[in-house]
Amino acid sequence: MTDKLPDVMTDTEWREFIGTFNLKAPTGLRNAALFVLMHDAGLRTCEVIGLKVADVRADTVDGQSMTALRLETTKGDRERMVYLTAEADDLLTRWLDAKKAKGLGRFTHVFTTLKGGPLAGAYLRELAARKGAEAGIGWRVHPHALRHTFATDLLEETGDLALVQDALGHRDPETTRVYAKVRNSRLARAMAKRQSPAEPEDPAVDALAAALRNLPAEQRKALAAALLDGGE
Which residues in 166-232 belong to E strands, given as ranges? Predict the structure, then answer.
């Protein structure tokens, strides 16, 4: 087991990354939608590639209509539901509409090539690295970093490791505990930035303090008494 913490994007890095995609181009819209699903809902590469149109569900939570995704494990023995943010829902809807307009509506998978074929994990890895570099991010971005970011942000928002475990679909809670370490690291850095720097020294104040220290004791007492009288 490694002690290396997962790669996690800052909010600024994420906005710069997702801003590199051209939403007016079909492939740009598709790629933005799939990466937003990974970032906002914690999908694995295999889950976003394997997602089927039938897995996209409408649901109601506390009286609010939401879009949910039904995700199965590769073995098919467990499933979980994840819920989409407004941004993820919008991009997914726009991509599905564009997919139908391209005559690809008959294909069962949500994300396909413009010929209806499957996307490859290698393509997503190359694309993430290339777009990360284009965004000026100083480390090699990979698709799983988006899932790491989702988990870390969710833990920061809720403080609930069990909830994060359910959202990620982890079998072993120890697998999820690494995000507590990330959270603590980010907290430490944030708190360090919040510490106010020492007030700059004022030469005039320093000179006055030195002059007062050099006064004879009787004169210091007389000055203190005068100040007290003036403050009444």
Answer: none
Please say if 171 is a catalytic residue. Answer: no
Identified catalytic residue from 52, 70, 109, 170: 170
Q: Which residues pair with 56 in a beta bridge?
A: 69
pLDDT tens across the length of the chain (232 residues): 456 777 889 999 999 999 999 999 999 999 999 999 999 988 989 999 999 999 999 988 888 899 998 887 655 567 888 889 999 999 999 999 999 999 999 999 999 999 999 999 999 999 999 999 999 999 999 999 998 888 888 878 777 777 777 777 767 666 666 666 665 555 555 556 555 554 455 566 566 566 656 667 676 666 655 555 544 4
Q: Is 221 a catalytic residue?
A: no
Q: Are 47 and 73 in contact (CB under 8 A)?
A: no
130 is catalytic: no
pTM of the entire structure? 0.71
Please tell me the distance from the alpha carbon of residue 27 to that of residue 218, in angstroms, as a whole number.
85
Domain 11-193 is classified in which CATH homologous superfamily? Intergrase catalytic core (1.10.443.10)
